[in-house]
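Hey L., structure's done. Input below.
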Amino acid sequence: MGIVIQYAIIALVFIVALVFLAKRFMPSKNKQQGCNKGCGCSMTDVESKR
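Output:
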């Protein structure tokens, strides 16, 4: 029974580490980088949203 708990703890730490790395290296959808050329918005609109 004790070895099962050890493997469960190791698996949990591994999953937490994977989630941390995924969040760190995946680009965030919330950050607005600006507009593409010809999008129709002015730069003042983009800067005021930041």
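DSSP finds two helices and no strands in the chain. The longest helix spans residues 2-25.

-- N.
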